[in-house]
Amino acid sequence: SGLTLFCFSPASEIPDPSSWTLNPSASYVYYCCNETVHGVEYNFTPETNGVTLVSDMSSNFLSRPVDVSKFGLIFAGAQKNVGCAGVTVVIVREDLLGHALNDCPIVLNYKVQADMNSLYNTPPCFSIYIMGLVLEWIKNNGGSAAMEALNKQKSSMIYDIINASNGFYECPVDETCRSRMNVPFHIGSKEGDEGLEKEFLAGASKRGMISLKGHRSVGGIRASLYNAVTLEDAEALGTYMKVFMKEH
């Protein structure tokens, strides 16, 4: 089968799908639904004209409803939105089972796992137990639709502060594909003022807000707003951002 590899530049936007050139003979089309480093998220499901669609949804799984019938394969590490590290959710179309390459490790052969009810090897019991609790919590709180509404509310709150800051806070991501899970921004300028950003992080830490430092490859600030982050948590960050801006 044909293979086409392509990437988008700059990493802060997703070009209009009409400009994409997908190989119609490809075995599958793969994409990462939410890119956490730059804070870019697909708010649509790509049209592949019949080619099997595969997606890594590790960082936004169950943060919104998804029509799984449009996908051949969805996989997601649980550690962002549905549990702790150590377990991966796989949703695979049954006709795709049984086509693993000969050198595929047996524990990664989805047909083997499906035939063995995910019990081919000793399962990570604690991680599965925690995921079960989180899934119950999501269900009892309105399901993925309720998570979507909450995540829109949280992320919009932070983006609105950025947009109204007259350049004090700068988010480099195009507004059409800004992530609801990971909100990156710089302080003081588009490139960021290192002194201001260090001061912001120190002040946030004193207020009990940690892990706000941006990824080492891009720097700046990054607020991750996964399902477990409450509206009150987002409000606390928003309040601090307003106070910090007023002080500077």
Automatic annotation (TrEMBL):
What Gene3D superfamilies has UniProt attached to this entry? Aspartate Aminotransferase, domain 1 (3.90.1150.10), Type I PLP-dependent aspartate aminotransferase-like (Major domain) (3.40.640.10)
Which terms under GO biological process does the entry name? Answer: L-serine biosynthetic process
**UniProt organism field:** Notothenia coriiceps
Q: Which gene encodes it?
A: psat1
Q: Which SUPFAM superfamilies match?
A: PLP-dependent transferases
Instruction: State the taxonomy lineage.
Output: Eukaryota, Metazoa, Chordata, Craniata, Vertebrata
Q: In which pathway does it act?
A: Amino-acid biosynthesis; L-serine biosynthesis; L-serine from 3-phospho-D-glycerate: step 2/3
Reaction catalysed?
O-phospho-L-serine + 2-oxoglutarate = 3-phosphooxypyruvate + L-glutamate; 4-(phosphooxy)-L-threonine + 2-oxoglutarate = (R)-3-hydroxy-2-oxo-4-phosphooxybutanoate + L-glutamate
Q: Which UniProt keywords apply?
A: Amino-acid biosynthesis, Aminotransferase, Pyridoxal phosphate, Serine biosynthesis, Transferase
Cofactor(s) needed, names only, are: pyridoxal 5'-phosphate
Q: What GO molecular function annotations does the UniProt record carry, in alphabetical order?
A: O-phospho-L-serine:2-oxoglutarate aminotransferase activity; pyridoxal phosphate binding
Superkingdom: Eukaryota
Question: What protein am I looking at?
Answer: phosphoserine transaminase
Q: Which family does it belong to?
A: Belongs to the class-V pyridoxal-phosphate-dependent aminotransferase family. SerC subfamily.
Q: Name one GO cellular component term.
A: cytoplasm
EC number(s) per entry: 2.6.1.52
NCBIfam families the UniProt entry points to: PRK05355.1
The Aminotransferase class V domain is annotated at: 16-237
Query: What start and end residues bound the annotated signal peptide?
Result: none
What enzyme category does the UniProt record give? transferase
